[in-house]
Amino acid sequence: xxxxxxxxxxxGGGLVWENEAxxxxxxxxxxxxxxxxxxxxxxxxxxxxxxxxxTCGCTAAVADKQVYQRGETGSVTATFRxxxxxxxxxxxxxxxxxxxKKPTTTLQLTGTLPxxxxxxxxxxxxxxxxxxxxxEVFVQTNPDQDLKLAKVDLDSRAFSCTFKPTKxxxxxxx
Length: 174
Description:
By secondary structure, the chain is mainly β. The chain has 1 helix and 13 strands, in the order αβββββββββββββ. The longest helix is centred in the N-terminal third of the chain and has 10 residues, at 2-11.
């Protein structure tokens, strides 16, 4: 039994990752983060990447190729699209290979997405059949970023909107 275990270890492949967890940094205006997870095949046989599975639809992952020969290096690039998210984000990529010693590896990308704009109300409701009355929303821009509300676009011609700054810096009344 001992010889069998040694034999499997000697002939198994093995992807060795430089980092299995990477923290991304965000700059104002960024809409996505790209992270490259590098590895080397330190085993004695080729290793095939069979599948890359991400946390959700906001994250995509691609390997630079599918089969890595002994001694060869490669990478998996993960792209996380922010799509309105804020706060601490943790996304994972599960890499499945044909390596019998370690068939799966979970890679993690983390970062903090700053908020740009906050609303005191996310939904305004008018009662059906009632007279149209103006409703207000207050918008606050992040004081840590150089943002200024320049205009408001509406996706319906049934509504109109005006905005003006309030006495509070970076706060607007819609």
